[in-house]
């Protein structure tokens, strides 16, 4: 069976995505910084699903390494899923340039760097799928998280263009827009239970949407409606709100 390449594989959502694709027979490249931390997950998945799992070191901000990283893969993947992301508190990001830049680079620049390389290969081969985890935060800039949100907005826009370009080559591109998900990233936040998804549910939604060739996925689906309302608030009202 073909390989799926998962970037940011230590994320709680990525681990569930890995289990879901393995359950459905896909081999995996699990890519992360200090990837040896993923050895237990690799063994667990291999035992449960009888697939081949390779763990690989990968830093999405080490742009110079991306080409050789992709070229050295023994078998090119059928699909790539970009899960890596970085979010610090907005108040920190707006005062500390290093934090601000890392937010932009992990969520946007790094993803563009590796996807430019992979998409050129997929286009040439006329096959493959690309999944990018963006966020509802990219749908409209809010004072509470507009640095992270603007990086995700740029990523969503990149994926939209990529989907448009690759359509004729038969390569599908899925943009995933999660609302709240209970993970390490959000553990310090007080999230409303009914609007918060579990990583396993997000993973299953992603698998189904990718297999069905969908373009954009809101997970939980209620976030489509919430963001539709938020996007349609007139700017002269929106600028006064604290949401
Ligand atoms: N949780 C939510 O409510 C939510 C909502 C909307 C969208 N999202 C998006 O969903 C994705 C997964 O997030 P999560 O909630 O599962 O958070 P998470 O557990 O914090 O995962 C983020 C992952 O990104 C990796 N990462 C950070 N910098 C990296 C770099 N330079 N190179 C490679 N990997 C790097 C982290 O690796 P380390 O483990 O090595 O630090 C971490 O495993 C992210 O793109 C996030 O923005 C999350």
Quick synopsis:
The protein has 243 residues and is α/β, with parallel strands linked by helices. It has helices at 12-23, 39-49, 66-71, 90-93, 97-125, 146-166, 199-211, 222-231, 235-238, and strands at 3-7, 27-32, 53-57, 79-82, 129-133, 172-178, 180-181, 196-197, 216-219.
Could you characterize the architecture of this molecule?
With 243 residues, the chain is of the alpha/beta class. It has nine helices and nine strands. The chain has a seven-stranded parallel sheet with strand order 3-2-1-4-5-6-9, with helices on both faces. Strands 7-8 form a two-stranded parallel sheet. β2, α2 and β3 form a beta-alpha-beta unit. α1 runs parallel beside α2. The protein is globular and about 55 Å long. The mean pLDDT is 97. It binds NADP nicotinamide-adenine-dinucleotide phosphate. NADP nicotinamide-adenine-dinucleotide phosphate binds next to α1 and β7. The site of NADP nicotinamide-adenine-dinucleotide phosphate has 25 residues, from α1 and β7.
Please tell me the overall pLDDT: 97
Q: Classify the beta-strand content into a percent band.
A: 15-25%
What is the chains' assembly state? Answer: single chain
Q: What's the order of the H and E elements?
A: EHEHEHEHHEHEEEHEHH
CATH C-level class is Alpha Beta
Main sheet characteristics: 7 strands, parallel
- Low-pLDDT parts are none
SS elements, strand count: 9
**Class derived from helix and strand content:** alpha/beta
Helical region count?
A: 9
CATH architectural type? 3-Layer(aba) Sandwich
CATH topology (fold) name: Rossmann fold
CATH homologous superfamily? NAD(P)-binding Rossmann-like Domain
Largest sheet strand order: 3-2-1-4-5-6-9
Q: Please give the alpha-carbon distance between the first and last residues.
A: 45 Å
- Say which molecules are bound, naming each kind only once: NADP nicotinamide-adenine-dinucleotide phosphate
What share of the residues lie within helices?
Answer: 40-55%
Overall 3D shape: globular
Number of domains: 1
